[in-house]
């Protein structure tokens, strides 16, 4: 049983699993120790670095959850070490709901999804958000490749647990960059064919001209 399952499978969840007939599939794993915070491996690190966005869930003092999309250039989320993620938070709508939530309750959930490859990774962690001026050294470390917007905060997440999620029902979608890269060979071939057609037309025109 992974630490993620240990944290996610609460008593209420277990009761539903038993009701729905899926508890037996996890009973054996639940006998295993949960262990300490799980270290990220190269697979998780590479996956996170490859994406240009993720979903960030926090819980406010009212008990209501809040989900926010955070985006940036691929690699804007850094894997600082095997237990820590970090990124520079740029100015948005200035509601600061997530920031306020994590100051009251640092427990968060992150959801990384790659639609093109139908892959997703979910994480539990503890987040901190500080003003950029409070930690200039970390800002410098996280600066590349973030080039968009005004940096206001430095966000770090201490990863407690993670799990690769089932790929079912992930609709394949592709970014403009991915489509452009996939079509590049097609464009090159079309350009060559157009050049060949132009050359053939010129040759035929020359043959048809008795002069």
What report would you give on this structure?
The protein is an alpha+beta fold and 211 residues long. It has three domains: 1-35, no CATH class; 37-164, Pnp Oxidase, Chain A (Roll); 174-211. 38% of the residues lie in helices and 28% in strands. The chain has helices at 3-8, 11-20, 24-30, 42-50, 97-104, 136-142, 176-208; strands at residues 53-59, 65-71, 78-81, 84-90, 107-114, 119-131, 151-164. Strands 2-1-5-6-7-4-3 form a seven-stranded antiparallel beta sheet. Strand 1 (53-59) and strand 2 (65-71) form a beta hairpin. The protein is extended and about 90 Å long.
Any idea what the shape is?
A: extended
The number of distinct helices, counting runs of at least 4 residues, comes to 7
CATH topology of the largest domain: Pnp Oxidase, Chain A
Give the strand tally: 7
Class of secondary structure makeup:
alpha+beta
What proportion of the residues is helical, as a percent range? Answer: 25-40%
What count of structural domains?
3
Q: Characterize the main sheet.
A: 7 strands, antiparallel
Straight-line N-to-C gap: 85 Å
- pLDDT < 50 stretches: none
Strand % is 25-35%
What would you give as the CATH superfamily of the largest domain? Electron Transport, Fmn-binding Protein, Chain A
Radius of gyration (Å): 25 Å
CATH architecture of the largest domain: Roll
Output the helix-strand order: HHHHEEEEHEEHEH
Strand order of the largest sheet: 2-1-5-6-7-4-3
Average pLDDT, rounded to a whole number, is 91
The CATH class of the largest domain: Mainly Beta
